[in-house]
Specification:
Helix content is 76%, strand content 0%. The chain contains nine helices and no strands.
Length: 218
């Protein structure tokens, strides 16, 4: 495997910029005695290493643009949303993030099974099966996240299932989240199907070109 050397790439700059902000926030809250925020900040900090773990542990490379989107998504949801009240300041914040998460998870699911089918499997999976896997993967991850939100609220006293409007309950938040997760995953599935059929588009073509360049250096 060839080692890539040189100055920091833009995804690394963004990643370490977010981590520095989170570390400073963690130190500030520890000094001020806000111990209830320590776990969410540490969780967000650990999650920013998710793309690195995928590449080093599972040999799954995500293009630079994907890595930046994932890190910024973590920052927007955990730090800005949970710790700085953006979920309450902007009614659309949670909807935007869940739509984005459905989109991101759909891309990850699609890339995983498509590239596995193209480069490593001896069988030829149908385009419909590939996009169905991507769609189901994104929805399943969304469901597991709702389990996490429910557990944190139920057992640790958090307010992750936000009650932003009068008369709203956790069911409304959960169903809204799952609906927009589904819409995001559906958009990716349609784009992925079009890519498999046409082998050329402005979205997946760019993602895969970077992935294959990275793979050639291994």
């Amino acid at each position: 495997m060839k080692k890539l050397s040189g100055p920091l790439k833009w995804n690394e700059i963004v990643g370490w910029g977010v981590r520095i902000i989170l570390i400073l926030a963690l130190i500030k809250d520890i000094i001020s005695g806000k111990l209830d925020t320590i776990f969410p900040i540490i969780l967000a900090l650990l999650l920013t290493f998710f793309p690195n773990i995928l590449e080093k542990r599972f040999r799954v490379y995500l293009p630079s643009s994907m890595q930046v989107i994932i890190i910024l998504f973590i920052f927007a949801s955990e730090y800005l949303g949970e710790l700085n009240g953006f979920y309450y300041r902007f009614w659309w914040w949670d909807i935007m993030l869940h739509t984005t998460s459905g989109f991101l998870l759909g891309i990850v699911g699609f890339m995983f099974v498509y590239l596995l089918n193209e480069k490593y499997l001896s069988v030829n999976l149908s385009p419909f099966f590939i996009v169905l896997f991507a769609f189901c993967f994104a929805i399943t991850m969304g469901v597991f996240w709702e389990f996490y939100e429910f557990g944190m609220d139920r057992f640790l006293g958090f307010d992750m299932q936000k009650f932003r409007f009068p008369g709203e309950d956790g069911l409304v938040d959960t169903m809204t989240d799952l609906i927009v997760d589904t819409l995001g995953a559906l958009v990716v599935s349609i784009l992925g199907y079009m890519y498999i059929k046409e082998k050329h588009d402005l979205f997946f073509s760019k993602l895969f070109s970077e992935w294959f360049r990275k793979d050639d250096n291994r």
